[in-house]
Design brief:
30% of the residues lie in helices and 38% in strands. It is built from seven helices and 23 strands. The strands form five sheets. Strands 1, 3, 18, 19, 20, 21 and 22 form a seven-stranded antiparallel beta sheet that branches. Strands 4-13-16-15-14-17 form a six-stranded antiparallel barrel. β19 and β20 form a beta hairpin. The longest helix has 32 residues. The two termini are 38 Å apart. 24% of the residues are buried.
């Protein structure tokens, strides 16, 4: 190689080495290069960041418990036959809207006829004994009979009156209304037909009866329910039972309705643990004006547990990187450190931190994603 070419090459190499040697990294850049968890934010990036202080505050976690929609048992009536008899007519159908007093079915009952006959006999006997008592009082006043005879007539009337009351009560037990009993006493006409009537305003959701069937008072023939309000019930594991209490906020998700959420509060927390399932029953009431919530639908109950003191940060501060959760903590002016954290449950835009961040740390609440991109990009260079 000619001497002039060799000199030129050496001169160019010296210039290149001198240029590289002149670029000395700043102390912040040196710290960033030595610690890959640190990120240096320039002025433009800092303008996009917002930090908040991690706080120690009462925080309630969300308990997810499997449950179901059920009848409000205070708005359900299971209606049976008032008397033993044979079904002659059925007037109700499934889904029919009924009100108290509406006739659901009619029965023919010899038992009812016998009870009406006993009432008429007791009524006649009472009238006879009343007349005997009045006549005895008149005779005693005229000194025709003695006090013992008067007392006998009064006792006979008292017994007859008691038997009449018992016969009237028996008719009431057999389902005869007071107006019908009064009409029976006036007309003396026996009717062996009895009506099964609704005792509640609502819908007929079930009936177990057929024409010609012989039924008894112990048989539940119809179920009438007011579905404008229903219950959501669930069973909380006993390990979490101490975290729930009456009055706590509840959200209910119903898969059959596209996981639509319904909000309420616990109106009941069981006082005992079921020995078979080791759970405690909880319940909330939900308005159901459109009837979309149907008993036996599956549901998930989201219960805000009793608050405990936890370190809490905004949910937006958490960045998922690989298989871990990161939070960027302000390390100094324009400098942020990526800190791995163990998280509890989140609720209402906040999340509890089990480890990694302590109360008082300032975390990046907005813009942590941009910091993470810058950090991972620098690590790949």
């Amino acid at each position: 190689m000619p001497r002039t070419c060799l000199c030129a090459a050496l001169l160019a190499l010296a210039i290149l080495l001198g240029a590289c040697g002149d670029k000395t990294p700043s102390p912040a850049e040196q710290a960033t290069r030595s610690d890959p968890s640190l990120v240096e934010a320039d002025a433009a990036l800092q303008a996009r960041l917002k930090t908040e202080e991690a706080r120690l505050e009462p925080f309630g976690e969300i308990l997810r418990v499997a449950g179901r929609i059920d009848f409000d048992l205070q708005r359900v009536a299971r209606i049976g036959a008032p008397v033993t008899g044979r079904v002659t007519d059925i007037n109700a159908r499934l889904g029919q809207q009924v009100k108290p007093g509406d006739v659901l079915a009619r029965l023919h009952s010899t038992e009812l006829g016998t009870a009406q006959l006993a009432y008429l006999k007791a009524s006649a006997q009472t009238e006879l004994q009343r007349n005997n008592r009045e006549r005895a009082r008149q005779l005693f006043a005229a000194d025709v009979i003695g006090r013992a005879e008067l007392q006998k007539r009064e006792n006979e009337y008292a017994v007859a009156a008691a038997e009449l009351r018992a016969a009237r009560d028996q008719l009431s037990v057999l389902g005869m209304p007071s107006a019908a009993i009064a009409k029976l006493a006036q007309d003396g006409e026996i009717s062996s037909f009895s009506s099964v009537v609704s005792t509640l305003r609502g819908s007929v959701v079930e009936f177990k009866v057929a024409p010609g069937q012989v039924v008894q008072p112990a048989d539940a023939l119809f179920t009438v329910a007011d579905l404008s309000r229903v219950w959501a019930v669930a069973e909380v594991p006993e390990q979490q039972a101490d975290l729930v209490a009456q009055g706590q906020t509840v959200d209910i998700e119903v898969p059959a309705l596209g996981n639509m959420k319904f909000s309420g509060e616990l109106i009941y927390v069981g006082q005992i643990v079921d020995p078979q399932t080791r759970t405690v029953l909880v319940r909330t009431a939900l308005d159901n004006p459109g009837g979309r919530l149907k008993p036996a639908m599956l549901a998930t109950m989201l219960i805000v547990s009793r608050p405990t003191e936890r370190v809490v940060i905004p949910s937006s501060a958490v960045v998922r990187a690989g298989d871990q959760d990161l939070v960027y903590v302000e390390n100094g002016p324009g400098q942020y450190r990526a800190v791995p954290v163990q998280l509890g449950q989140g609720y209402n835009g906040k999340v509890a931190v089990d480890s990694g961040v302590k109360a008082g740390d300032r975390v990046v609440a907005e813009g942590a994603f941009h910091l993470n991109n810058q950090r991972t990009g620098a690590a790949q260079e």
